[in-house]
Structure formats: structure tokens, C-alpha cells
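Consider the following assembly input.
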Amino acid sequence: MSALAQSMDSHAAGAEQELTDGFHLVIDALKLNGITTIYGVPGIPITDLGRMAQAAGLRVVSFRHEQNAGNAAAIAGFLTKKPGICLTVSAPGFLNGLTALANATTNCFPMILISGSSEREIVDLQQGDYEEMDQLAIAKPLCKAAYRVLHAADIGIGIARAIRAAVSGRPGGVYLDLPAKLFSQVMEAKAGAKSLVKVIDPAPAQLPASAAIKRALDVLKSAKRPLIILGKGAAYAQADDQIRALVEKSGVPFLPMSMAKGLLPDTHPQCAGAARSTVLKDSDVVMLIGARLNWLLSHGKGKTWGEPGSKRFIQIDIEPKEMDSNIEIVAPVVGDIGSCVSALLEGMGGAWPAPPADWVGAVKAKREENVAKMAPRLMKNTAPMDFHGALGALRTVIKERPDAILVNEGANTLDLARGVIDMYQPRKRLDVGTWGVMGIGMGFAIGAAVETGKPVLAVEGDSAFGFSGMEVETICRYNLPVCIVVFNNDGIYRGTDVNPTGGADPATTVFVKGSRYDKMMEAFGGVGVNATTPDELKRAVDKAIDSGKPTLINAVIDPAAGSESGRIGNLNPQSVLRKK
Ligand code: ADP
Ligand code: MG
């Protein structure tokens, strides 16, 4: 007799058959499919679901705000290729979680948002129920798929559909609507157990056509100045060995997108990270592996890409609709990255011609020039710190601890850290992703710590940190090995703006001067440090990682050091009429 049947049995003393209910069926269906962790915020109508899930051996991590729980679930999906589960209450809790679900979908991370909802009959007649909202209708346009389960007997199928939708093809977010009434619906335990579905092969391999492979290799072979761009889809695919073999066998310079850094080390001789502008502008054939030609790559056109018509693109992606989304793809290769890269390797055969030496040499020279230019700025040991000095210290930390996970958000803190901090292992850099969104910090840090057990270093702009900062309590409560460094320059972009009217209110972009974010961590029993020099910063991070204790380091940055919107100031419209 299962534990669930036993417990039902003891409740229904004297009942002739063993019974189960909606609560137990949801938990059993998740467990049957290998789900081990739920991220969420308790409340009506899912409080007991969380309690019972914990009692049934699932790890249930309770947050202070649903958006952070959702971000934790999303990054769990990215790191494990299994859907991360986020559990919320109805209406406002659901909406908070929905932001994370939409973000996960945009980033192609598999995630399932499970929200309790109010009485269907009352919601549909708009009679004003507690937290009334037609959640399914609202979720639908913002995620990959959305389902509602009305009968306990359908829970197994509902969860199976949600899992398959999240991880198959291009991964994404799925919404699962569970009305309050469902949880207490009772059915016969045996029939309940039979109704559950263990999803077989949830993300089936998708093999590329051999003609597509041949076409891609022909284009690559004909290149004079080839480039490989690795995106976070390549990191997600966990085909690390094949990708490395393809890059090395081809001899082609590679450029990692932000979250693909570390797939091959940034210090690899073929890495063109430090020669980014040059390779984008001067290459003639570009092979995209799990990277979209969206705004982060200037849509494959414009000044960034040099002369119009100077490129031919090969694209490897699981989503056929991605091809030609922004510009013509001469060699589309549709399939999962593991299968596609393996097929390319096989097609290359024993010997493959190295790319022209003048191209490889030019990329190498540019890279060395840029690295040398940056080096002295990273060694400045002054107080207050500037971004490069502080990041120089953190760069050394990751070099010495390549298995630590780096979470990164902010404006300048993000843009500069991406370039300065080298990564050495796959899926160790987690950041603002496709939307460039603020607020992922603590959710990603907690999700990464829970899923991997590795130390997490979260490098946060002071503004970015504010969106999820209350979760330091969660980090302390679960005693997670997370070290947060807040780059505190007193404001957004900079801390030096003033109110143009001379009035008493501060400028719109500044915060309390000289804030001590480290005290927030101390309030919950964690370690707080105020660091004013790169040396102090490095010592404090080392200590935090060695101890595994929740730590927040307030890194005092010169308020005048930042630039408007970091590296994407061009996206921030400015009035020509504005008086400076
Ligand atoms: P980046 O921002 O790093 O450039 P994107 O998120 O733009 O990366 O692109 C990731 C791409 O990877 C998406 O187009 C997605 O369809 C694709 N993708 C995700 N997982 C896989 C996979 N297993 N196989 C093939 N393509 C994948
Ligand atoms: Mg700031």
C-alpha cells in the first residue's frame, strides 16, 4: 500500500475502498515524472498542496514573491532540461508568476507555472469571487501552452501534457490551471493511480535531414572568413563534447553569446569573444548554433555586420520558424543541437581543411590587442572602486573557482562583467537573457544553488538587486551557498543625477546615498561585508565561498563611474528638447 493510500485510509476509517484526491494525484503525477523540487509561495488554495508535497518527499522552496519563485523554476529548467515547477495562488500570485513564465518562454527555458484558481462557475459569470480572474485566458498568449484540469481523473493527463509541451521541440513555459475545487475531489485510489501518465521520451531527438547537413558543410567549406556563434540553446542542449569537437575540428573562431560563455573556455585559442566587433563585421560565413538573430545580434544586419550582402548564414535550431526570421538563411539545419552537431561532425569525415590562416591570424591579433588594452584597468586597486577594478577582482575569483555559478544583472554591472569575467565551464553564467530583463537575480541564484549544490556568486547592480532583494531572507532560511555582490553606485546608471528643479525630491534615477545593503543580509543571520577596495572585495568573496554561508557584500563603487543604460544607451530614446 502506498503512503498516500495509507493516509487516505486512516482518514476514511471504515470506508470500503481506498481513496485518493486531487492533492495527492498532483503530487504523485509530478513524482512519477521525476520532478523533485517545487518553487512557490503558499496561500489559498495551494497551501496544503505545498505542505503535502513536502510531506511526500518533494523539496518545496517557499519564496517571498512569486516572480522570484518563477525565475528560480525557469533557471532550474535551463540547467536540468526538466521543467522547473512554480506554484502560486490565484489572481495576483498568478500574475506575479506569469512575468517569470513569459520570460522563460522568451528565453526557451522549460517551466510549468501551476496556479490555483477560483470557482469556474463564479469566474465565468463574473459574479465576484475571491481573487476572481480568468487565468487560463490571460496566460495563453504569454506562454507556449496552457491547460486547465477540472476533474481529478484528468490530473495525470494534464501534467503529462504540461511536461511534454514544456520540454519538447523549442522549450518554453506552460501554464497549468488547477481550480480550488479540484484538490479535494476524491476518487478511488486504484483508478487514480492508473490515471497517471509517466511521459516517455518527453523531448524526442529531432534528426536533421542529410541534405541539410551537406548544404551546411558545403557553405562552411567555401568560407574565407568563417565564424561560429554559440547561443544559450547550445548551452541548454548539453551536447558539450560534440560542440567542442565540432569547433575544434573546424578550426573556426567562435563567439559565445552571454549564456553560452564557458561552453568552451573563454581562454580557448579559438575564442573570439575579445574580438567581437571584428568578427561580426568581417566574417563571410556565420554558423549560428542555438542563437537567434534578434536584437542581441543586431538582427543580422546593419553596421555591426559590415557591408550589406557580405555574409551567408548557416543556422542550427530546433524551431523551423526561426529560419529567415530576420535575414535569409542559406543553410538551415533544423533539429536538436546534439543530433545536428553529431551529423555535421560525421559529415566532415576524417580530414577537414583549416580556415585560411590570414583570417585566424587577424582574429587572434585583434583579440590579443583588446585583452592587453583592458588588462591594466582590471588591476586598479582604488577606493571608491570603478567597475573595472571591482570586476577585475571577481574575474580572478571565477578563474580560481571555475565551477562556481555566476548570476549577473544590472546595466553597467552586466555589460562590463560579461566582457571582463571569463567563464570556463558550460552553464555557469546565468543572466538577464533575451529580454535583458532586471529582476532575475535572486530567483536565478536560489534556483542554481538548489539544483546544482554549487557555490553561486550573484553580481548585481544596486538597482537590479532591488527587484528581488527580499529573497535574501529565503537564501538565509534555506542556508544556501550564495554570495551576493551589490555594485553600489548610489543609483541607476550613476548616482550623481540631481533634481533639475532644485526641489527637495531626489532625481528619478538615484537611491539613498551610502546605503548599506550588507545590513539586509545581517538582518536574517547571514554575513554582511562592506568592501571599499578590490582587495577587500576579493577576500570577502573567497571567504563567503569557502564558508558556504549566505553573504552579501556591499561593493562601494564611484557614483560617477557608470554610463547611461550601460552598453545599450542607443535603445533609450532621448528628447531633443531636453535641457541638459
Ligand atoms: P542567445 O540569446 O544565447 O543567442 P537565443 O535564446 O537567442 O540564444 O537562441 C536559442 C535558440 O536555441 C532558440 O532559437 C531555440 O529554439 C534554440 N534551441 C533551444 N534548445 C535547443 C535544442 N535542444 N536544439 C536545438 N535548438 C535549440
Ligand atoms: Mg547602480
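DSSP finds 23 helices and 19 strands in the chain. Ask yourself how this observation constrains the way the partners meet.
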